[in-house]
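Record format v2
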Amino acid sequence: MMQIKKNIALSNTGFVFNPTTGDSYTINQVGQEILGYLSDNKTVEEITSLMTTTYDIDQASFEKYFFDFISMLRQFELLDENYEN
Amino acid sequence: MEKKLFERPFIKKLQAGMPSKFGMKSQAEPITHIDNVPVPELLAEHGSPLYVISEQTIREKYKQARQAFTTRYPKVQFAWSYKTNYLDAVCRIFHQEGSWAEVVSGFEYDKALQNGVKGSQIIFNGPDKTDDDLKKAIENDSLIHIDHFDEMYSIIAISENSGKRPKVAIRVNMDTGVYPMWDRFGFNYENGDAWDAINRIMINKKLDLVGLHTHIGTYMLASNAYKVAAGKMADLAFGIERKYGVNIKYIDVGGGFASRNTLKGAYYPGSDTVPSFEEYAEAISSAILNSELNPRNLPTLILETGRALVDDAGWLLGTVIANKRLSNGNRATIVDVGINLLFTSFWYEHEVYPAAPVSEHMEETTIYGPLCMNIDVLREAIAFPLLKKGDQFVIKRIGAYNMTQWMQFITLRPNVVLIGLDGKVHVIRKKENMELIRQQEVVPDHLK
Ligand SMILES: Cc1ncc(COP(=O)(O)O)c(C=O)c1O
């Protein structure tokens, strides 16, 4: 299971702040919701189901964009890679 | 419950310091309609990709250009440069507006005739006119612009067997202070070749020297270059009047006005740097009016404006095939429009817009065409909204040179539609099919 680093600050206006590095990010609405679910420790299956109910997107397409998004988070070092389920 | 529109999730690092070179102005503003016709409707009806031409825009552009010149110079004639876009429907709009035709091959010449242009209103340019082309042009009283001495002697030889006196002009090349100088066409002004050509025509007496022609280059950002060119042309015309007592009927300054596209590598967008028709018109008209030419007997000013008249009237519509991430983490979007359909992507940083409203989020993206070739890149690095597979987009200002320099490569060429003044959508070039391509091929018996 993926986990967002604990100290990452997420504002509801679409800004993300990483206090360790001092970097900030903008994030769109869909990204914001996913990040929210990740901090709530939801599983990929739960997130997929929630998102495909709210949004006009099928499961396969959603997962494709979801994992792409995760790899962006990883690239920006916002994921807690040591987190063990 | 109606589901919400999905945009692919996106996160972007905020950079401290300067915004990008074009400031923070985003290009996410969608183009949802062309001349009031919805883009999705056009694509559903005629397939993707799709070229769209606006009759209204062509006519408006033409009127702007004509107005700029006719308010500054008494005798003005436009000649539509066929190579820029020679779809018959497009040519006929220009001819209806009063344009003559400017052609550079036997093929273009015949097209102009078939579009109903009178022979005497066809300007025949270019270095490659065959004897058959020349015979036809002489027979039809067309205006033959001589490119080199070999051509001059061919025309003289042909005219000996025909009762007609060929109407000719010479193409002149010159230094106008811009680089590169187009000196491979016509006769040079500075080294005296142009005068040499004029003298030979006047002494020979078999040809009717009716005009002088130049075309100093294409996408010329300096209106002053036209001032220099028109001044030198007027000097030549005055010299002919003085030496031979002959009034040149026209000075043709060719094409070359820039459209508002942005050249690759340019620091400022074309919309900020390109001179207006008024500026070009002022430069050219003032140079001729201020020359020594007799104001009561001024030559007609001919303009062969191409891209500046038709670029704005064309759009290329397409669909996103896929999104990818490159090995360096950069975003790549693959679309169904390749360089085979957008030749001008070699010159321009074309503006690409989403066809539907999107959020303000933009990602630095490289836009690739669908061809299996490394060179198939539409935009190197464009701040682009988060389009998904199946989303539609619109490329703006593509009316010039693409519908003539396109390639039938890997795939077939799509439909071209014209939105008429009445708002109706007319197919003006049908999409190609297998039958059409195979018709041209012949398989030898031993391979059957
Ligand atoms: C002789 C001549 N006239 C007119 C044109 C049209 O030029 P543009 O599209 O730059 O106006 C060209 C294009 O190269 C040309 O060679």
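Chain B has two domains: 33-53+313-430, 55-311.
The radius of gyration of chain B is 25 Å.
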